[in-house]
Amino acid sequence: MQSSLLKYRQAVMALRTAGGLLRPARPMSSSAVAEPAGPSIRTDSVPGPRSKQLMEEANKKQLPHGIYFFADYSKSSGNYIVDVDGNTLLDMFMQISSLPFGYNHPALQKVAQSKEFLEMSINRPALGVCPPSDWVDRLNASLLSVAPKGLSRVQTMMCGSCANENAIKMLFMRYMAKQRAGRPVSQQELDSTMLNEPPGTPRLSILSFKRSFHGRTLGVLSCTRSKAIHKLDVPAFQWPAVDFPAYKYPLEQHQEHNAKQEKLSLVQVEETVNRQRATEPVAGLIVEPILAEGGDIHARPEYFKALRSLCSKLDVPLLVDEVQTGGGLCGTYWAHEQWGLDSPPDAVTFSKRTLLGGIYFSDNLVPDQQYRVYNTWLGEPSKVMLLEAVIRTIKEEKLMDSVLEAGTALTKGLEGLSQRYPQLINSPRGLGIMCAVDFADTNSRNEAVQRLRNKGFHTGGCGEVGLRFRPALIFKEKHAKLFLETFDSVLKSMAK
Fold first, then answer.
1. 252-261 in b/e burial notation, b at 16+ Cβ within 10 A?
2. Mean pLDDT (10-residue bins), the chain, 496 residues
3. Residues 17, 201, 279, 376: which is the catalytic one?
4. In this structure, is residue 387 part of a structural domain?
5. Is 321 a catalytic residue?
6. Is 411 marked active-site?
7. CATH of the domain at 343
8. What is the pTM of this model?
9. Are 432 and 330 in contact (CB under 8 A)?
10. Is 213 one of the catalytic residues?
11. Which cofactor does it need (predicted)?
12. Are 328 and 100 in contact (CB under 8 A)?
């Protein structure tokens, strides 16, 4: 296993060097993060009494949510979050994987304190009509500086759900433009679409995978298949979904089984696309590099390479949803960079650690009337300013090295614990610091999450039995060691 991890690190470092994410590191004194030496719990359990009081008040005024605890962000720093009861927790969940550097990072504080950031925040422009004078320069310095290979266009959006919604619209527009073959839109199409009827409102579909998650807004819910409660009571399109390969982990130890599962999945994809041609043709296929909400289902690069080839053969554009996997936590800025594709995806969506949503896309997805992919804000320039600092800091401080080192330590530690407590946990897996392990059942997983939180470690569940980890890019081997020691003690107590 050690040799496999070494090969993985070497391969990822080669990819990052080619992509320009490895540069000589500058001294870290100007942006070094001051943080506690470790977790500290003051209450009998988390959430504590003050958090519980605030939760009760909030639930009377908002939709009740699954709040873990209320945080004191003024006291939180680096990898550690402090709650309103004074508990300090090592945060390995990071606001559902949304914070690149944890809390109150000096590089981001410096940007936020600038005059330019203040002006952009209070004069928030509608980017489609009145973007700021430096908008193109900002895009070049941020999103386009880390654009996936082969995709030179980007459209900013507010969040991951609306990025996927609009990317799917682009796939539909591309399909219908090909059907028209250059003829203008007819009056019949214009009239019928106002009635939600063909031919202006065509019967098309998007192919997704079972157990996938692509957002909770109305349209994209038809692609989301991770939890029934997300979709319950909401009308949906009758779009098809196929099985993702039923992998066994570690991936390299079950290659024959995994290869068979991949073939079964690919056959389903092809059969489904061909079957749909007569009713609701498939205008695109959407896939996550890791099925995150569905249980952190990691796949082999070989599968995605075959999927890319199959999509090209079937003339079905490939949309890669990197909302959770993008931003560096997998060891490269985009997880799909590790697939070794012969041709790029047609579109890549992003959000979370990139601080705003958006779509990278190829020229063949540019609609004839570009204002058809539009909303008032189209993202937020102040977030792009922060993203510039994030990308610059990743390069200057060589944070991808830390991701690989910490991810290797965490994954190896999970492997060791799964061998020590096989009756409790299994299937350790990781790509960079995007790691997970499965429990024997849901109740045991939930119990472990709570026990870890009570000891000062904030993690999250996924799927039915998965425990997932989404630490910050400044997460180090020492943090992994702290967690693994406590996780060992939790598992030991649960095994009695």
1. eeeeeebeeb
2. 50 52 40 86 98 95 90 98 98 98 97 97 96 97 98 96 98 97 96 98 98 97 96 97 97 97 98 98 98 98 98 98 97 97 98 98 91 93 98 96 96 98 98 98 98 98 97 98 98 95
3. 376
4. no
5. yes
6. no
7. 3.40.640.10
8. 0.94
9. yes
10. yes
11. pyridoxal 5'-phosphate
12. yes
